[in-house]
Design goal:
Blueprint (H helix, E strand, L loop, with lengths): L11 H9 L5 H7 L1 H14 L24 E4 L6 H4 L10 E4 L11 H4 L10 H4 L21 E3 L6 E3 L6 H13 L5 H23 L4 H12 L12 H18 L5
Antiparallel strand pairs: 1-2, 3-4
Helix pairs in contact: 8-9, 9-10
Amino acid sequence: MKRVYKSKQEPEALARYRKSYPRETWEHFRRRARNGYREVKRQILQDQHGLCAYCEISIKLAQAETEVDDFRVEHFYPKGATQERGHNYHLDWRNLLGVCHGGSQPCVPDAERRYSELKRDRSCDVPKGGKEISGLILNPLKIPGRLRIFRYAEHSGKMFVDEENCPKNLQRKANSTIRELNLNAPRLMRMRLEVIQKLEDEIAQALAIGQPLEETLALLAETCLPPNYDGVMLPFFSVFRWYLGEAAERVITASGDRL
């Protein structure tokens, strides 16, 4: 999970719909304002640079008629809390995140890697469901972007709280985030391990031709962390950040802590 810098200006169609129907539900908005729904999805994808807000896998859109997008809109604060708290979380722009299907959808693109029949392999909003756990987990919109919160095991891709860098007051919530969203699902660990191994290979190749380690790490950080020309980031941003260490932190600082 990384910091999400959400557009302050919400999609016009959502603001207009909420003004006309302040008590309406997300399901009604999605059905009755289909162009507005598509506008919201586009803006979420753009704000998140094409990554799932929870696990950081890349969002993949359907390419064939038989496929469905590995993407849906998640409500960080459950929609069911609307009546109890007197706030319409259904249509609150700051409550909308883009997430993957968490391994639960067999018809997504690249399903052989993304889908799992095993319940223990489901992640993100699948185990979260409609439970009110917003007080137990980190909100991607509020994570301090200038600090590294997570680290990973090089041999397995397993995710841990980076206790040396994560503020003490966030460590319990960070651990709970990993557990509640099942961010160590075997499927995710495998994909993170692939990223780590690819980095290891690229560094080994650079060193073999005499390129200094510091220069290699700097080049990788400049290549792997910022979004491409289409505004899309490589999946598992936080793995790159952890593995590339200070080289990554320099790139993030140079961005104004906006990566």
